[in-house]
Amino acid sequence: MMPLIAARKSRGLSQRKLGTATNIDQAVIFRAEKDCKPVSPQNAQKLARFFGFPWTEMHFLYPDRYLELGDIDPSTEAA
Prior knowledge:
Elements: H1 3-10, H2 15-22, H3 26-35, H4 41-51, H5 57-61, H6 63-68
């Protein structure tokens, strides 16, 4: 599972609710999840701020790097 999907699901959010909470168009979130493509640097920053540790802008800018390392389970990471 790519980092954006894992982060979103860890909070129990739909794509629409995440878009509203971060002021990112739901279509951008959909494309990023479906195509496993990074979001813009501005949107990566918004997502990192919203989700907080352990998520960083890098998780959203370079999702393929984090897929290779395995999934991060935010519920088990120290805050």
